Amino acid sequence: MAGVISRGIQGPIIREGDDIVDLVVKSVYASEKEDGYSLKDRDIIAVTESVVARAQGNYVSVDQVAQDIQNKFGSKKLGLVFPILSRNRFSVTLKAIARAMDEVVVLFSYPNDEVGNPLMARAAYVKHKYDDAGSYDEASFVATFGSPVHPFTGVNYLDFYRDVIEGEGAKATFLFSNDCRAIAAACDHILCCDIHTRQETRNTLAEMGKTVYTLADIMSAPIDGSGCHEAYGLLGSNKATEEKLKLFPRNCQPVVDGIQARIQKERGIQVEAMIYGDGAFKDPVGGIWELADPVVSPAYTAGLAGRPNELKLKYLADNDFADLSGEELKTAIRQEIQSKNADLVGDMSSEGTTPRQYTDLLGSLCDLTSGSGDKGTPFIVIQNYFKNYAE
Asked: Which residues are bridge partners to 105 per DSSP?
């Protein structure tokens, strides 16, 4: 009778150099024995990106990031466009930028950042949006919208980011606009700090003759023996200490393939495996979109490619088989599932299903299962995900 089951699996504290494949497999086997279940074909084993990066030792220091900033920008004044509001995600990066510069000009989007962190109370924005001037300096912004405090963390990010910049001896200047071109008059050297819109922002400013890089370009190669990420640079990084960042894990495909191959060899079971970061879901109260990582899953086995192709059971029950009930209805729906088309896009019988990428859906499930605090379950086992009503 069971549908989808998602289990958080405890593991050891991961250190640099650990064999992550071995630790994952052994932890899952131990969980099977203790919790009374058995792996089956097409079960999914997921590993949070953080422990993969820890095992890889994929860290960079503030000084190494500052050096890369200096290498790329021939200026001591740098403009930052659309950074997210996060102590975990951006404060140490900002410290490194300020260490490399004499002046940092920050252009904030409003009423919230790219992933939904609010820069102001929504009511203040709604009150003024119809006569909005579009762009503000700090004094006019605060006079119009008030002093911003994050509703979840209680942090005033203007004060917090100013303290970070000035703590490194640099001047902090804040601007506010949803048009990236608003920074052009203030800076010729610009770092695009947005995540999912970075290429669009970069292209717009590059067309204006500016020297432009994105966060994906910073630490895309090692500096003095540091870690790096060739594709994402600082995107997906997290604060490790006040002087160190953990980067998004690199070269993850051997990890997921290794988990799959080992269990196939030892058990004769074909599981799927993936690395997951932030889930792609949005908080309905705070409006924060939980995707500060550049992608939900940087690596996954072949069986997790694609999207669900599912029928909506209530549509079938209310429309195609509205005159049936009981076992007759159950049989009819199961037969419909067994004979469904390979591609249901545009078919009314699939209306209301969720045709997102498997890895995005599974990443959200894993992120919610493991949490981001002290649960201590960096590995997830998902069972029955590909099982439907007809099986």
From this structure: 79, 173
- Residue pair 31/218 in contact (Cβ under 8 Å)? The answer is no
Mean pLDDT of 369-380: 86
Number of C-alpha atoms within 13 angstroms, CB side, residue 326?
1
- CA 90 to CA 155: how far, in whole Å? 14
Distance from first CA to last CA of the chain, Å, rounded? 11
d(CA 43, CA 384): 7
Residue % of the chain over a pLDDT of 90: 69
Q: Measuring CA to CA, which residue among 84, 16, 62, 14 is closest to residue 242?
A: 62
Q: Are 92 and 239 in contact (CB under 8 A)?
A: yes
Note if the pTM is more than 0.85.
Answer: yes
Alpha-carbon dihedral sign for residues 311, 317, 322, 327: positive
pLDDT at 12: 93
pLDDT at 317: 73
- Pairwise CA distance, residues 257 & 272, whole Å: 9
> E strand or H helix at 145, and its extent?
helix 138-145
